[in-house]
Write a structure and sequence with these properties.
Length: 373
């Protein structure tokens, strides 16, 4: 449950907005205020996750109140609600999550609630990480942190060996297989010696941060018995598994997965053995984006186009996929967006490959845009 506080010097407006929030069960309004003085006096005793506040107040502005809150509690989401458009830039500059113009309709408020849920989930994850000794980052660059300090591995191969264990927890791995993938160009005797050295360094590094005996050796097999660590890859797997079970997953869940994935697995680490794993995650990422397009195409054009553009980035020259999305956009009534997507594709094809769209695609696009012009 996301705890909310409301602050507006107009009692009727406050009551009206509180009633609108009742449609969202994930939001619990714990307190409302019409007085800045009362709010500031009670602030130290109140625990909340989001505040909705008016820009134009009396003693202080909503911007000043937000600044006080964000200074003391950076994790609190601030949503402004006002009839004044001119303060939006300032609101975002001080860390506001959203800026609602009165009167606020249900659809616009629903988008805000989705943003709040996404931010709340991130803050919960950060709190969890803060109480965990070891934090392993797999997306973008592989890195390991101990109480927010980067763990320095003795050698690059020691770090790579740990990366392999992280991707294959609780699975018996034959010693010779580790030798083959980590030292493919060395003779067996030297490679075996290097493996033992890297394992020794890795065990020492893990022991230093309180993880003793998590690498077990038995009958030529090593097992990394996954200890209680925080790992972005494990978080992604958990959320993606939840996503896969739902026919119509919430956008907040898709956003969670995308935020964790960033640009992909081990982007800055040249681990050849991770290629298959990377490809599998990329497919999951594209599936998330495609589902995002499907869910938002009729309700949130901006979001749908964000998802769609990311999908096309991963396979920019696939005319069959492009044709499918042109039909999808046209059917949703998004003619300008469809035309823009086609023109972007045509320009990219020309600049990157010095080619033009196939005659088939040109004919299809001509018919599409002629029918709906």
């Amino acid at each position: 449950m996301i705890r909310a506080v409301l602050l507006d010097n107009e009692p009727l407006a406050l009551h009206y907005f509180q009633n609108k929030l009742q449609a969202f069960q994930q939001i619990q309004v714990i307190q409302t205020f019409t007085s800045i003085e009362t709010f500031l006096n009670e602030l130290p005793m109140i625990e909340f996750d989001v505040i909705f506040l008016e820009i134009k107040l009396q003693e202080l502005s909503g911007l000043e109140i937000a600044d006080i809150i964000k200074t003391e509690r950076s994790y609190v989401s601030v949503v402004f609600m006002t009839t004044y458009q001119e303060f939006a830039l300032q609101a975002y500059e001080i860390g506001g999550l959203d800026y609602l113009l009165k009167p606020i309709n249900h659809a616009r408020l629903a988008k805000t609630i989705t943003r709040i849920e996404h931010e709340f989930s991130i803050q919960q994850m950060l709190k969890q990480h803060a109480h965990t000794i070891l934090n392993v980052q797999c997306f973008d660059q592989f890195a390991v942190y101990n109480n927010n300090r980067l763990v320095a591995f003795k050698t690059e191969k020691t770090k790579e060996l740990f990366a392999y264990f992280i991707l294959h927890p609780n699975i018996p791995i034959h010693r010779d297989y580790l030798i083959e993938i980590l030292w493919p160009d060395l003779d067996y005797v030297r490679a075996k010696s290097n493996l033992h050295t890297a394992l020794s360094y890795l065990r020492k590094a893990l022991n230093t941060v309180g993880y003793n005996n998590c690498i077990v050796f038995s009958n030529k097999y090593y097992v990394f018995e996954k200890p209680n660590i925080v790992c972005d890859l494990y978080d992604f797997q958990k959320f993606y598994e939840e996503f896969s079970k739902l026919e119509s997953p919430p956008i907040s869940l898709i956003d969670q997965c995308l935020a964790i994935y960033k640009n992909g697995l081990f982007i800055y680490d040249d681990y050849e053995w991770a290629t298959t794993y990377k490809d599998k995650l990329t497919k999951s990422y594209i599936e998330l984006l495609e589902k995002g397009v499907q869910i938002t195409i009729l309700s949130d054009t901006e979001k749908a186009m964000f998802f769609l553009n990311r999908v096309l980035e991963y396979d920019p020259y696939n005319e069959q996929k492009l044709e499918h999305y042109l039909y999808t956009l046209i059917q949703a009534g998004l003619h300008k967006q469809a035309y823009s997507v086609f023109q972007t594709y045509r320009q990219k094809l020309k600049e990157d490959l010095a080619l033009t769209p196939s005659s088939t695609l040109l004919e299809i696009s001509k018919k599409l845009f002629a029918q709906h012009s």
